[in-house]
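writing this on my phone so excuse typos. first protein, seq and then structure
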Amino acid sequence: MHDIPKALEKLATFQRLRRVVMQSSNLTVAVSGGVDSLTLATIAGRLNGQVTVAHALSPAVPSEATQRVRDMARTENWTLKTLNAREFDDPNYIKNPHNRCYFCKSNLYARIRQECHGDLAAGTNLDDLGEYRPGLIAAKENNVLHPFVEAKIDKSELRNFARLLGLPDIATLPAQPCLASRVETGIAISAGDLALIHKIETAAATMMDADDIRCRLTPNGLRLDTSSKPSEAALQAVKTLCEMAGKPFVSHAAYSRGSAFIMPISS
């Protein structure tokens, strides 16, 4: 079993987290494949000697995120439960309202509860509380624990935890919300569109150096948002993929976090 490094043990923030995590003798961590949940699962597993990890297989989850979870489960000796959250069976999710994440997480947590027993935790951190996250309502309704929040740990601190745990590739993972977040609010979610979005982002990533690359589906067509200017070759590759899929390519724009999300106007 892997140990907790001494440098990490010395941190007061980690000791707070230890106390929170050790309150659960039978813990399942919902793991998306991002830095937050992977770091929490690693710590929980090393502290308790064993942890169950639940990961959703979905058109909205990039294949590389699933592979990352599988690889770490083998390395860290987690009990891995892969499941279909069945959010695509939910018409409320498919409609893609501004609170789509509520329906996604409600389905996910309900499925995990069917498969796993004991406490259920998520990788929510302090920074998440300052954003509009309807998924947190679903978490509350399903009694999901938030150890990082209870221990007052933010994103930068948990990234530091990952580095000290000897997980540099995890520590530097860029934010990567689900593929459905690329679809503008009000446009119906479809597995085919998500697959195309992922294909375009993957192709663009191999042809340019940018920290953030998003393919947005808008009412007018697909738009490529990047944190640095793409090459003409990258743009042509994206246009070709759009043409092959019978979808119009709208334009390129500077990356802006959450630009596909639209809140309803209050009356």
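second protein below, same order as before
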Amino acid sequence: MWNFLSLSKNCHAVSEVMGQVLIAGITFSALAIVGVVLFAQEGPEYTPQIEIQQRVDASSDILYLKHSGGESLSFSDLDLIVIIDGNKKVLTEEEIQGCTGKNSWSLGDVIEIDLYKTWGVHLDSDNCVDVFLVDRGSKQLIQKATMPIEGMCSPLMNPGKWYFFTTVEGDDSDKVNLRYLHDCDPAVNFSAVPDEKYNDTFLGIEGKEYYPKNNFVHELKGETFGLTFGFRENDFKWPGAHNATILMIYSLQDQPSEFSLEIAGESMPIFDPVNCASNKWHMYNQTVPINLNSISDLKFNIHVNVIGKKSIEIDYLAVCLN
């Protein structure tokens, strides 16, 4: 006769074995799936390894980035982000190439970014400049830098060098863009001096017309006009100079009824342009003795009054100490 009890015991034993086999199979399958998922994933994308030196010069509003070591990097693979006081600026590939004249960045190459020309940003001592270099492919940060503002430690105003004024006060001063007074027609001969008869040198002789750059224009309209240009106390250290020379390129459409010029409180020869008329440009170049103790006292004042609706235009203005 069949031993049903023994068979029942054997069936229980087989069930336990089969259960263990099934559990093991499921476990191995799960591990295999996890392994496939893990090993199927690609490793992290490669990020270029380079070293960058950076500085920013507030006196010229230029950011310098120098490739000082590591791999060459194509500008098409680079995102260059500049944040100035929380305002994000992104340089395009074409703009970066324009700063270097190259398509890639190699050891020793310097990217010079004129912040004013590119984004209209004029730096001062309160600005904070952050630079982020990002690899476009991996989206990984190559380098971040927060830079102190150079040019804010009152450098010496060297004698014999032309400097541009940093402040302006008076009529229409809010319309005077001081940066507009930094450039002029490249044909101007800055070494030329007025002859004995006139205080001014006429520009555009021998059939060569003078072309102004970003010039400041003030319509006089029969009213008194006055501007005072100067420097902040911390712009430069005072070199102890004895003479100041003003160089200005200007156009005045009529002889003024009232006119005065002063530098550091000292009177200067007034404009004496030849053939005052529309579109006639002159270079004023005059030197007077001064006696100052501070750069903030080096102020240049223009006071003009012309009868009628005429105008005065200024294309270039600089001062030199000796």
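Confidence is low (pLDDT under 50) at residues 1-9, 194-198. thats all i got for now
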